Recover the amino acids of this structure.
């Protein structure tokens, strides 16, 4: 059995750890609230841009098929995979589940005779892919705690340029979609070509599903010229939304992980307190026995 001094030292260590984890939980909770506000502010704009892009693509008709970002490639040989992770750890399975999903997706593509071209956002994803021997075409770090629109634009410019010049035939993004502080959903979406984008493949709004006459929309300039402006913005806003969703998921996962760590530290402190009490009782009993033995030897 450990001595009282050893147990006290361990209790002090766990209490210090508990203070740190509680502080990290509080910081993550504050950052999570700000991230939720940014997502809530972005979603209406992103949804409106999605509807506008869909409407313009439908009205442009065959003319839209000649736009580079809408063009489908057959066959698809080079598939770009962008994984969105965090710069830091201590967030439970937040990073590892994204990395596992990305590596599994790359293995499936290579098994089908295609080539995976790797992009990564966040130091955890960059270091993990480098460790596994994958060559990164794009690595983006240093902003996962609070991504800006400029960060999304920088990533978008690289992906769009690679897609337009033919280096990539399709681009997919894998990130943690935010549902609640306790729940994050691994999301895999097709980003390019936009004609196959997962977001454009979602159910249309109620007003778009309604049968009957549709409102007449007049374009100035025409729908094709409007699409030339909308499509790059669509890619940027889609990436920005993925970055914000990932940031909120990261803070939620870290808050949950730190709360669990604090609770576990509390349980360990209670167990160690019981152990220290038993050690104290054993020492007192030993001392009493020694006193009694000494008294009997004097009789």
């Amino acid at each position: 059995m450990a001595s009282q001094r050893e147990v006290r030292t361990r209790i002090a260590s766990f209490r210090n750890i508990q203070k740190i984890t509680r502080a990290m939980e509080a910081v993550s909770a504050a950052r999570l609230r700000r991230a939720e506000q940014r997502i809530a502010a972005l979603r209406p704009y992103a949804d409106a841009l999605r509807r506008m892009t869909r409407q313009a693509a439908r009205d442009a008709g065959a003319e839209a098929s000649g736009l580079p970002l809408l063009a489908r490639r057959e066959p698809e040989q080079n598939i770009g995979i962008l994984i969105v992770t965090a710069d830091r750890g201590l967030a439970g399975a937040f990073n590892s589940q994204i990395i596992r999903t990305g590596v599994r997706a790359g293995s499936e593509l290579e098994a089908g005779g295609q080539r995976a071209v790797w992009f990564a956002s966040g130091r955890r994803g960059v270091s993990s892919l480098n460790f596994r021997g994958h060559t990164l075409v794009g690595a983006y770090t240093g902003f996962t705690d609070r991504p800006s629109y400029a960060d999304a634009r920088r990533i978008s410019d690289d992906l769009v340029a690679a897609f337009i010049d033919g280096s990539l035939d399709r681009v997919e993004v894998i990130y943690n979609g935010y549902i609640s502080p306790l729940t994050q959903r691994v999301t895999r979406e097709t980003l390019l070509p936009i004609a196959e984008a997962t977001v454009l493949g979602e159910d249309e709004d109620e007003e778009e599903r309604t049968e009957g006459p549709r409102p007449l929309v007049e374009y100035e300039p025409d729908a094709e010229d409007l699409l030339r402006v909308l499509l790059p913005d669509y890619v940027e806003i889609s990436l920005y939304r993925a970055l914000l969703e990932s940031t909120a998921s990261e803070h939620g996962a870290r808050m949950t992980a730190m709360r669990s760590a604090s609770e576990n530290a509390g349980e360990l402190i209670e167990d160690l307190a019981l152990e220290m009490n038993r050690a104290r009782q054993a020492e007192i009993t030993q001392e009493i026995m020694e006193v009694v033995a000494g008294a009997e030897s004097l009789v």
Remarks:
- The first strand starts at residue 78 and ends at 84.
- The beta strands are 78-84, 115-121, 136-140, 170-180, 183-192.
- The domain at 24-204+216-256 is CATH 3.40.1380.10 (Pyruvate Kinase; Chain: A, domain 1).
